[in-house]
Sequence to fold (571 residues):
Amino acid sequence: MLKPTIGLEVHVQLKTRSKMFCSCPVEFKAEPNTLVCPVCLGLPGSLPVLNRQAVEYTIAVALALHCEIQPFSQFHRKNYFYPDLPKGYQISQYDLPFSRNGYLIIETEEGEKRIGIQRVHMEEDTAKMIHGESISRTSGYSLIDFNRSGVPLLEIVSRPDISSPQEATLYLMELRSILRTLGVSTANMEEGALRCDVNISLERGTRTEIKNLNSFHSVRKALEYEIKRQEEVLKEKGQVIQETRHYDERAGVTLSMRTKEEAEDYRYFPEPDLVPLKIDPPWIEEVRSRMPELPEDKRKRYKELGLFPQEAATIANNPELANFFDSCLSLGAPGKEVANWLLSEVMKYLNARNLSIIEVPLSPEGLVEFLTVLKEGTISSKIGKMVIEEMLQTGDGAREIIERRGLAQISDPVLIKKWAEEVIKENPDQVSQYRQGKEQLFGFFVGKVMKLSGGKANPEILNRILKELLLRE
Amino acid sequence: MKITLEIVKHIAHLARLEFSEEELKQFYQQMVELLDHFARISELDTENVPPTSGILPLYNVMREDNPGPTLPREEALKNAPEEESGFFKIPTILEAED
Fold:
């Protein structure tokens, strides 16, 4: 297989309360054209004023991505005509971007991998055009809603360090988890708060760009398709053409977009309506001091507790789960055991119902009590699965559930011995086979005794007693 | 950079402006003069002069992130040649024109 080289360009909507250059509120479900003013409608004479919060969010993201923050940066006008751009230009950044040269770390099956970040810069979002299914493209018109015009965006450009569709997905997941941990964006792809363009080439040959991928699924599928397509072109001694392609989600294919004959000519020039930004170290340090622990550091801490890298990543990349896990840790619970239950029974329950850990009544205190009960030997882990499910449903304590349902483990050797003798008496054939050396039958006896006990017999005591009785001729 | 008539036409197209041949020639002449002027400025030694992006001695002019009033929708749509259900209505623009 030819080696793919993939780079991602991601646009992220920042979760500020107001727009980037005017004070119109940022909301995503408002009636069309109700969150607009002369600035974001591009009316003559209006002037932009930069939102401080957007700058601070950008500093936080740049720090989280290990970027160098430029002490001096500036906005440029990117000039092009399109109806979603009322001024005829987009305020963006060009040769003096906010920050560059960073990286993020993904946790692949082969271990950690660093993906370089080329730059992080700020720009304004465009208006939303509607010419989808409701309005046919051939009907001759489109509708425009300017509510989105001027919403602050980050453009995050990776280096071409990604070498598979799986890695691209991991990169996006890591980025999303960083953005959510920082609280700077919902980073929800389906709602368009995180949008992705990909660049892909094989063996560092000619690359194509696929634009506007709006789900994790589309990113993976579009890349898989494009790798296959380019492979076939090269196999037939053809040439990959440098072009922009569009991913057709329904057909699962990438299609060439009609390309403009002229090369893009944005005629960037410094935005004269905005003064430059100077970001000094004290400001950077102030933002840094307010930043929460990042997923990368969380993972490291969890791995030190004995969690496997994949386990650590799953918890660290889910802020709500990580909070829950950390609360259990601070209650003194052993990390490894908490993780085992969280990632098996608890996740199974949550995933089946599409719930988040904060949407169920199980508390960290509850889980820690459960682990104590388990350790005391009051219940087996098999019974534990039943108990935890009920805890997830009702929020009741483990001891309460065990008592109510009579689930406590039976450790009374007299009782267990009685059951074991019964099983031996009723299965003479198996007993003689076992005694002749068919040792794998041991599980059969354990199962029978367990069944008699209603699943409550203490497995260790049961094993010991059974062995004694079976070996006694 | 040498100005040609082709470049003038290209710039006019980028700005979505149409000109007569006569006007194009006139702009061509003006642009040649303009660039000559800049060529003369470029002769200056600017080795130790930092690039200027603005003439104001100001940095970091920002506002706090507080939502403010917006235009009533009727006002926003007032100058729209056409509207429909609260949207601006425009002729369909295809990805590539021409």
